Amino acid sequence: MITMHDIIRDGNPTLRARAQELTFPLSDEEKELAHQMMEFLENSQDPEIAKKYRLRAGVGLAAPQVNVSKRMTAVLIPGPDDEIIFKHVLVNPTIISESVRLAGLAEGEGCLSVDRDIPGYVLRHQRIKLRWFDLEGNEHVERLRNYPAIVCQHEIDHLNGILFYDHINKKDPFAAPDDAVILG
Ligand code: SB7
Ligand code: NI
What is the mean pLDDT of residues 52-72? Predict the structure, then answer.
């Protein structure tokens, strides 16, 4: 299983590289990694398992974070009472279109690969149209907004060597356009 020991931290050059596209069919190793990444998210969101293995809770994990420079990321967004809002492994994800309007989390963002808290708004597109492939090579297209859109943009950034704090305004970390949506 993947634990915090497998997750590389800011400073490791893999986190700043552009990850490679995958080709289909995926290898058994690539499929196994995808399952392991999703299992990490499930474990990290289970209070007992997370406590036992000292996992930080995560809603996403990108392959470069486990030192695999490939364009694959797992996303698991839980909703209220055991509902699941979004659960997919995204292979070769791309944003086809995006809103001009921006959105950010009131609390800012964090990252399993960044061990310190960095305050400030990370403003991202409030709405995106996302295209990706599943493990079998089937194409998916979905429109996302607000939190799920933010998480997917954080993950796709990892595939491009970008970390959340790159987006924070250095002079005024909480500056935002008047029409930006700040999500409580
Ligand atoms: C807040 C947290 C995340 C995404 C967007 C806002 C995910 C944190 C876990 N990760 O480091 C995944 O890359
Ligand atoms: Ni991250």
Answer: 99
164 backbone dihedrals φ, ψ, rounded to 5°: -55, -40
pLDDT in tens, 63-77: 999 999 999 999 999
Q: What is the mean pLDDT of the chain?
A: 98
What are the CA-CA distances from residue 161 to residues 8, 16, 95, 139 (Å)? 13, 4, 16, 24
Using one digit for the tens of pLDDT, what is the confidence trace for 136-166?
Answer: 999 999 999 999 999 999 999 999 999 999 9
> Which atom of ligand 1 has the smallest separation from the CA of 111?
11
Give which of 93, 87, 88, 85 is closest to 158, Cα–Cα.
Answer: 93
Q: Is the CB of 30 under 6 A from ligand 1?
A: no
Which residue of 117, 154, 164 sits with most ligand 1 atoms within 8 Å of its CB, as the best mutation to test the pocket? Answer: 154
Find the 139 Cα to ligand 1 centroid distance in Å: 24
Clarify whether 142 is annotated catalytic. Answer: no
Say how many Å lie between the CA of residue 34 and the centre of ligand 2. Answer: 16
pTM here is 0.98
